[in-house]
Amino acid sequence: MINPQTGEGTNKKVSAMNYYSYRLMIRQNTENHILKCRQLFHQYIVDMYAKIETERLLYIRLNQTELRSEQYIHLRDAIVNDGNVNPNELGKMAILPSTFTGSPRPMHEYAQDAMTYFHAYGRPDLFVTFTCNPTWNEIKELLLVGQSSSDRHDITARVFKQKLKCLMDFIIKHHVFGETRCWMYSIEWQKRGLPHAHILVWLINKITPDHIDQIISAEIPDKHIDPNLFDVVTKNMIHGPCCAFNNNSSCMSDGKCTKRYPRKLVSDTITGNDGYPLYRRRSVEDGGKSVVLKVRNIDIEVDNRWIVPYSPLLSKTFKAHINVEYCNSVKSIKYICKYVNKGSDMAVFGVGNVAAPLDEINQYQLGRYISSNEAVWRILSFPIHERHPTVIERHRTVHLENGQRVYFTADNVRARALVPPATTLTAFYSLCQDDLFC
């Protein structure tokens, strides 16, 4: 490695992630031609992150090739009842560990964390989706001459991270919705590359149905009373329009909108027992507003049926698509907790031997989809999930008697079969049996 200040060589080495992070930075009085290459730049960062991830997966594969796993009772029966059993035919190859960021296992654990919050504090109060706005001034000011935001996903990623931090400070530190008890969020990326955050918020003082309209709106604001909010809502918070206006919209399936738009017009907010409430969406005759939009070169009138629920305060502050939903029923909690932590998009299809050993590393790689914005985010080591407070008990393994999973190699399989391994659950029972506090 060369010291950039002295030009002298050193024996210090850096990781591939640190090197490519260095290459993506903007420096005064230094030309970075990589940042001027548009789609070639995108291909470069995707390839480099794919290389980084492949190296990590290779390390995991090479350091656990001999490790297998099986339920203890099955391993014990196989060894004790059949002395001639081949250890190499027992169990399956060890799976992709939860220490690998972005793999299915940690996302499942995060979903369990959310369910732990639910069991401890009840249903979350708010479900917020915050999407990057490529027209933010902070992004435009950093673009080179002739560039658009779609050419510089490194800028959109860094600006969105700062905006997300400000949004979380608004909610957590400034208590715009009230004092928070706990929260969590995960970052995802749209197919077109823009990042968005799914946020769950639990409040100390629960939101009551009477206060929903004070926090959330699903109506077009009055242009004359609040022109700034009107501009933000009409640019960012209108769904589609789809259905009869555009049957080719990405949200359409079997002739219907998968997001259930247009919504029903109601004069007052109605809370039910399943999912989200019906927010107030007044008709034009009842005092609601409408706006004329140009869709496919045709002027159409859009009313409150097409408005995505939002917080007026957050929309005016961040000038972006920020969908705010009130969590009304416990029936939808499990879906929301899993949705927030569902992880990256994956798509894989194949035909093979169903009896073949499970290879989660290969499955993960075959189904991996990486956008250039995600590649930048991961190269810069930005977090994809954060939560507070930390869940300590999430790793308590729940299993039947002698049903815990045991890891073994061909060399220690018989020793592992004779003594059942301790788990967090069995250790907890032992503590309850021996400790004086019981």
Walk me through what this model shows.
- It holds the Pfam family Helitron_like_N.
- Residues 19-201 form the Helitron helicase-like domain.
- This is Helitron_like_N domain-containing protein.
- With 438 residues, the chain is α+β, with helices and mostly antiparallel strands.
- 33% of the residues lie in helices and 13% in strands.
- It has 14 helices and twelve strands.
- Strands 10-3-5-4-11 form a five-stranded antiparallel β-sheet, with helices on both faces.
- β8 and β9 form a beta hairpin.
- α2 (39-62) packs across α12 (372-379) and α6 (153-172) packs across α12.
- It is globular.
- The mean pLDDT is 84.
Structural class: alpha+beta
Count of individual beta strands: 12
Ranges where pLDDT stays below 50 over 5 or more residues in a row are none
Query: Count of helical segments?
Result: 14
The sequence of SSEs as H and E is HHEHEHEHHEEHHEEEEHEHHHEEHH
Which range best describes the helical content: under 10%, 10-25%, 25-40%, 40-55%, 55-70% or over 70%? 25-40%
Radius of gyration: 26 Å
Q: What is the average of the pLDDT values?
A: 84
Strand content: 5-15%
Strand count, sense and barrel status of the largest sheet are:
5 strands, antiparallel
Distance, first to last CA: 60 Å
Q: Give the spatial strand order of the biggest sheet.
A: 10-3-5-4-11
The general outline is globular
